[in-house]
Amino acid sequence: MPNARKSVKKPLVAEKLFTALHIGASSVSMIVAERADDGTIIPVDFLEQPAPVARDIFRNGVVSASTTERVVSIIKGYQKSLAELGLDPHSITRAVATNILSEATNHETVMNRIRIACGLRIGTIDDGEMTRLIYLKTRRRLLNLPAMRKDTTLVLHVGPGNTRALLFQNGLITRYTSYRMGTHRTREAVEGSHTEGSAMLRVIREHAYGNLAQICFDFSDVTVDGLVLIGYEIQSVAIPLTQSSQVCSIKTLRQFTADAANMTDVEVVKRFQLDYQTAEALIPALEINLAVAETLKLAEVHIPISEYEQGLLHDLLVSQELTGAFAEEVLRSARILAERYQSDPSHGEHVGNLCTRFFAALTDLHQLTAHDALLLQVAAILHEVGTYVSPRAHHKHSEYLILNSEVFGLDRLDVTIVALVARYHRHSGPRLDHPSYAALSTDDRIRVCKLAALLRVADALERTHAQRVAQLEIRRESGKLRIRLPGLADAAVERLAMASKADLFEQVFGLAVVIEEDN
Length: 519
Fold this sequence. Notes:
Nucleotidyltransferase, domain 5, alpha/beta, 49% helix, 3 domains, Hypothetical protein af1432, single chain, six-stranded mixed beta sheet
């Protein structure tokens, strides 16, 4: 893969073209895609060139100057190709780097060098987006696999630095876990052993022992019927492993791994048509995937035959647009977390429904996004998880528990916002002497204030935890937000609660909240 390029020859319309660039663990890639009339993304051009980013990071803790300049050179070449297509070479739709780049002590220097040399601001794929990308790959490409039709399927993504596992039960995600175990991380960790062949495999297995034991524990309560393996290296050898069937027996995977371990890197490059960086990480990828399959006592694994990097770039263009089924998976994860901390599910759901009503009715007032609406719903579901620790000051305990938990599909900023909105559902509103709130940007602090104001109003209407408010009518007039409650003759409890919780709404939106009973 010294310079991979695939293109579709067709008339191009610049206004319909979108671009994504990815600085990966072992290569820099770019896709040019066109949005069809039905909204689907169609690849037009794909380029990929190797760059040893992960090797530098896990070997020396920094990205070397030579690797940085190679990345810059590759990106400049891609920008020239964009200019030839009539596109602005400095306006790439999505430009991101692998999350392992943040582990380099000089990652900011590298980002600044790219920005100065290429005029591009590069973002980092965080854990939340990585789960979205794995979800997209799973839902869009893997549903035709027999394994995905089984009752309980584990999707395993062994990345360059971390391994992620998504458990699907009856087609729905019920668990998400992450482990500090990856292909390039493992390669550099065991490099000093100077072992080869079967001895190298034993060293890799011993290095992964702790994570394998954790995986075994994490899924000890379920019977995994099928295991789907995805990842750059494992999918690069999917065809020879599965003979195009997408199914590989453990016996075949074990023999394939042993044979590959006895090859030199040069032989692996020639045999499987890989670049050297991918070849170096192939053996750890094979052994880690094999070890997980054996830990789960499975007879076979499923490996999709698709081009991993091209698919990732495609998904980067649609990852931030996910709604519908993806939002339901996020909410399902929040509900599982709420259940773990024994939070009242009926109360959380009802507050969430009321939040949705207020959010929709006041769109022009708050000017927030659909993603913000999702975060508000998650915060409503989780706002009382802190009672698991203690009813006293439970809003602070809720913040702590959420900050230290994972919600599928949400990145760390999302989780922080949810935690803060949950904290501010009662008592004090946002203050700059609250560390997590103060650490946010001004725009994100405003988001927290708006979302918390909506949550407090909704929570006041559910003060009794009895779902008394089934209907509501909302109107604005004369500096007031008037809420009429059809079917509720006496709203004394709700009015009392609103008196202590509507202060933030008035501060943020300039409207006093008035409750009117159904007379």
